[in-house]
Amino acid sequence: MDEEYDVIVLGTGLKECILSGLLSVDGLKVLHMDRNDYYGGESASLNLIQLWKRFRGADAPPASLGSSRDYNVDMIPKFMMANGVLVRVLIHTDVTKYLSFKAVDGGFVYNKQKVHKVPATDMEALKSPLMGIFEKRRARKFFIYVQDYNESDPKTHEGLDLTRVTTKELIAKYGLDDNTIDFIGHALALHRDDRYLNEPAIDTVKRMKLYAESLARFQGGSPYIYPLYGLGELPQAFARLSAVYGGTYMLNKPECKVEFDGEGKVVGVTSEGETAKCKKVVCDPSYLPGKVRKVGKVARAIAIMSHPIPNTNDSHSVQVILPQKQLGRKSDMYLFCCSYSHNVAPKGKFIAFVSTEAETDNPQVELKPGIDLLGPVDEIFFENYDRYEPVNEPSLDNCFISASYDATTHFESTVTDVLNMYTMITGKNLDLSVDLSAASAAEEY
């Protein structure tokens, strides 16, 4: 391997594949390597035999579950906001031509031991059983303020500077009770814990607007979309994009050792006795364990079921958010379900995931509130995995390391990490000012 590359990307997780696609489109010479013989890394989708091998070792899956190849079980299950940043990246890169999407049936929130549809507009707020009659009126006024808010039009600000006013102060102005604040903060603004209450309100208002805009795109039951055949399709689509623009792919490359010069700057990657030279390396935390630190742990359950999640209007695909306060925890719990309607399981089968930031070493006990909402399950698997973040200084060593995937079942935090890495690598921001209404490729999810 005498060639020199601008960037070598290690690992074919979704973040790494998006970056390799974006950098190839920018004209950089990219080599993409992975120690595995399949795409997706940590964010792969597994068939039933692969799933069994990973969690049950030598046992074969029972015949009653149907054909192995009809399953595409995500290892990092996440929905996409229909108007979110990942959709803008897909449209910007034209990757939509390699994928088909479908809207997700419902978004729900757990409140006082029950599952409720998330009200996302002033009209839905008036119908929601989450609130009493007077609270509904107050909530409706708050929703109208958020819907009308326009950063560049001071007339819509009602005299408030949302870059200085905290979320707690803004909500106090409308006199909303704790339950209402809970579902607004966690099920609409998609905050993972309650720190947002003491931070500038502008972030929460923008998040709520994103939720409402995403909901409006399909007039469906939720703001989310999800690819047919599972998330494993996404890394492959970006890999295809990279290849179209001259990127080179090598799977099944063992070891992949990153090489450094005397000053600690990356100079290449060695695998099977050959070294490919490069100026920069992009990778997931597993390729450079000495440059990351453990920041947490995700607990997850994966269940195969023969019915939709109860109390979700028979939704074939659904997200339920269980806010931390409702469970007496420090962080939220997420319930994600999809089924044969998204081609991830055989007809009549549903795949459900319960995930949370682990606070103990016992996922079975910790995930119980979410598992209790599932009803009877055919099979269930448990796992814990550690979350890592980079601690290196990329300007000194030219190593750009992604953070591990969090417990959330939506993509907003994932894409923020990718765009930050893109800016660090290229020195510029990705222009995502695409006209979503004109992007016909994205209209037929």
Automatic annotation (TrEMBL):
Report the record's Gene Ontology biological process terms.
protein transport; small GTPase-mediated signal transduction; vesicle-mediated transport
What's a single GO CC term here? cytoplasm
Q: What's one GO MF term for it?
A: Rab GDP-dissociation inhibitor activity
Q: What's a Pfam family this protein contains?
A: GDI
Query: Please, which domain of life does this record's source organism belong to?
Result: Eukaryota
Q: Which InterPro entries match?
A: FAD/NAD-bd_sf, GDP_dissociation_inhibitor, RabGDI
The family note in this entry says: Belongs to the Rab GDI family.
What name does the UniProt record give this protein? Guanosine nucleotide diphosphate dissociation inhibitor
